[in-house]
Amino acid sequence: MGLFDKIAGAFEKKQCDICGGEIGMLGNKKLENGNCCKECVKKLSPWFTDRKHSTVEEIREQIDYREQNREALKDFHETISFGEDSSLFLIDQQNRRFVVLPRRNVDLYEVNPDIISFDQVREMKLDMSYSSTEEKIMRDGQRVSYNPPRYEHTFNMYLKIVTDHPYAHEHRCPLHARSLKVHTAGPKMNRSYRLDALEDLTRFLDYYPPINYRDRVQVDRELDDCYYFAHMGDEICRTIMRG
To answer: What confidence tens digit (pLDDT) does each residue in 127-150 have?
Structure first.
């Protein structure tokens, strides 16, 4: 097939093999042996990532399951919750199961999060990304280092979840919506393993604390934010893995 034929095929209208509706221009979502419209894809599990390798029959089965999951949510009884502005964990401790909403103030039944049993969880751990960049100042038209140098340390924390659930196999749930930043002045901190970066930075600040009171208050607040989400992630893991 030539390039022109591929382009023409992309604009060709197709029929959804799931609901039978017409698929709009550029709206086709390929399956292993058929086509699917965007509306049917929206009905799939929020954590499902294997659509292109799923058959028409498998997608139909999943959509049937999703409706059963929506009905089961009516009997979901939250006993404890964790989360701020991202990845709200609702936990039904009595029945040993949980769901994850993308954020607060969303409709539970509209989002239809998968109900996951504690027994289906194979791995759950805190995952953290870390980076450090030097901050510069403009002087005589050039970006130059501060004296002493200043650094911005960026943290992003997630919960990595691996399960035996038929449609929600693996997911990285962010614990906060925006990157967490800590600002320091002094020498550059040695490169750290990701999960040790927060503790390394805390020890680093013991040796090179902020010079003035204002900077000390700021960095304490920034570190408190980081530890808050790290401890929250650990508490979620303990609640589910030991539940």
So the answer is: 999 999 999 999 989 999 999 999
At residue 17, the 3 state secondary structure works out as: coil
Q: Quick one: how far is CA 17 from the chain centroid? A: 31
Give the start-end residues of each E strand in 39-114: 80-82, 88-92, 97-101
Of the candidates 25, 49, 29, 52, the residue with the CA atom closest to the CA atom of residue 39: 29
Instruction: Indicate the pTM of the whole model.
Output: 0.86
pLDDT digits (tens, 9 = 90+) for 168-219: 999 999 999 999 999 999 888 876 655 688 999 999 999 889 988 999 999 9
Contact at 8 Å (CB) between 218 and 183?
A: yes
CA–CA separation, 63 and 17 (whole Å) = 13
User: Measured between alpha carbons, how far is 19 from 38 in angstroms, rounded to an integer?
Assistant: 11
**Residue of 214, 203, 205 lying closest to 186 (CA atoms):** 205
Q: How many Å apart are CA 123 and CA 160, to the nearest integer?
A: 8
User: How far, in whole angstroms, is CA 62 from its chain's centroid?
Assistant: 22
Q: How far is CA 112 from CA 88, 99, 156, in A?
A: 13, 9, 26
CA 135/CA 241 separation, integer angstroms: 41
CB of 225 within 8 A of CB of 180?
Answer: yes
Helix, strand or coil, per DSSP, at residue 210: coil
Give the closest residue to 186 by CA, choosing from 148, 222, 153, 160: 148
Tell which residue, 179, 181, 173, 180, has the closest CA to residue 103.
173
